[in-house]
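Q: Given only this backbone (144 positions), what sequence would you predict?
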């Protein structure tokens, strides 16, 4: 077996409309599809009886993000510290991280820090409306 690529990344969210608004309107991703899913196939794939989902697919460049809102069974929030096992994040590439930071901060996005300079890139973490960690990332053209 060989992995040929990545189809998409997925996050479970508590409110699909609020999350779509954040990723589409705040981050500028393109909403490409949104629908509900339930039935035997969904229950079998998830290994979860009674599963009823709202799903949205958004694109940023060539990457697809799937957002899933479980209408049933209802999920519950959990602590997502970045050091805990299990939480993940997406690093979004931006051309100007300082400008992106200022623009998103003005829109009320919560950042864990201002952009930081590493040897090969600038980066900072922020959170979406569900507390999911996201990263802004800008490549450095020259080392300093």
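A: Predicted residues:
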């Amino acid at each position: 077996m060989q992995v040929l690529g990545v189809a998409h990344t997925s996050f479970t969210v508590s409110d699909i409309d609020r999350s779509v608004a954040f990723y589409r309107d705040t981050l500028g991703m393109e909403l490409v599809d949104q629908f509900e899913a339930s039935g035997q196939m969904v229950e079998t794939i998830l290994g979860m009886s009674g599963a009823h989902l709202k799903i949205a697919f958004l694109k940023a460049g060539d990457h697809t993000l799937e957002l899933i809102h479980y209408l049933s069974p209802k999920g519950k929030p959990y602590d997502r510290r970045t050091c805990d096992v299990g939480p993940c994040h997406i690093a979004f590439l931006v051309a100007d991280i300082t400008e992106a930071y200022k623009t998103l901060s003005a829109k009320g996005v919560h950042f864990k820090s201002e952009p930081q300079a590493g040897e090969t890139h600038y980066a900072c973490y922020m959170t979406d409306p569900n507390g999911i960690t996201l990263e802004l990332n800008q490549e450095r053209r020259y080392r300093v």
